[in-house]
Write a structure and sequence with these properties.
Largest sheet: 6 strands, parallel
Number of helices: 9
Mean pLDDT: 89
Structural class: alpha/beta
Order of helices and strands: EEHEHEHEHEHEHEHEHHE
Shape: globular
CATH superfamily: NAD(P)-binding Rossmann-like Domain
CATH topology: Rossmann fold
Length: 249
């Protein structure tokens, strides 16, 4: 069956929930930024425990207070990145590309063997004062592959969440789009998919091994260009996939 990639409209969609992986807190490195805070907000609404990390603990605490006000009863705390990283088995890295290398260097003693690091970084040319509609070359092939090279031994990197709009996550609009997940082991991708699908309206799609991140990351500047032309916040949707749960089994 032919597979097509189309831009998603915002409509209600029933979430898939992989509940067996949801007991631990979700650490978000760079959680005070637009993407990190938007993810924290959506997960808090879904009842997840959140640990917001930042280079400056006072900023993390402010973001946690803001999130608590937005989602009454939310279990959230804000700490320094190094203190946030060990708090859960699946850690999300949501810093800009220009901060990726420094952040990972600073986390070498905080990440432990067996953890999964979800790299959401996009090597936009804006990191070097270029256009946000272009990417820069990464020696390793992609930001995700660079993260895997820099991560401590035993830490697995999964690449995901490059095409979801941060402003939409931080707002009230309903989501109805796919998230392309790249990684070398299906079991690791399934754990990340379970968290992604805790956000109502998001569906995780297996996009292949980590090396595919070099393609997926380039979708971000394309969407930035489309959004600028149409004055919207488009996402993507993969059509023609079977209705069965790909991540089970």
């Amino acid at each position: 069956m032919r597979r097509l990639l189309r831009f998603a409209c915002r409509a209600a969609s029933a979430p898939r929930i992989h509940s067996r992986w949801m007991a631990d807190p979700i650490p978000i490195i760079g959680g005070t930024g637009a993407l990190g805070y938007g993810l924290a907000l959506r997960w808090a609404r879904a009842g997840e425990r959140i640990v917001i990390g930042s280079r400056r603990p006072e900023r993390a605490a402010e973001a946690a207070e803001k999130l608590s006000a937005a989602v009454p009863g939310a279990e959230v705390e804000g700490v320094e990145n190094g203190d946030a990283a060990p708090r859960g088995p699946v850690v999300f890295l949501t810093v800009p590309f220009r901060a990726q290398s420094e952040t990972l260097n600073n986390l070498r003693e905080s990440l432990d063997e067996g953890q999964i690091l979800v790299d959401c970084t996009v090597p936009l040319a804006a990191a070097i004062s270029g256009k946000a509609t272009r990417t820069v070359g990464v020696w390793q092939g992609s930001a995700g592959q660079q993260a895997q090279e820099m991560a401590p031994d035993g830490v697995t990197v999964i690449s995901a969440l490059h095409t979801v709009s941060a402003p939409v996550l931080a707002g009230e609009a309903e989501l109805d789009e796919d998230v392309l997940v790249c990684g070398d082991r299906k079991a690791d991708k399934a754990r990340v998919a379970g968290l992604i699908e805790r956000i109502e309206g998001l569906r995780a799609v297996n996009a292949g091994p980590l090396e595919m991140a070099r393609i997926v990351e380039t979708l971000t500047p394309m969407l930035i260009a489309i959004n600028a032309r149409y004055k919207t916040h488009a996402g993507i949707k993969v059509t023609g996939l079977p209705g069965t749960d790909h991540w089970e089994g």
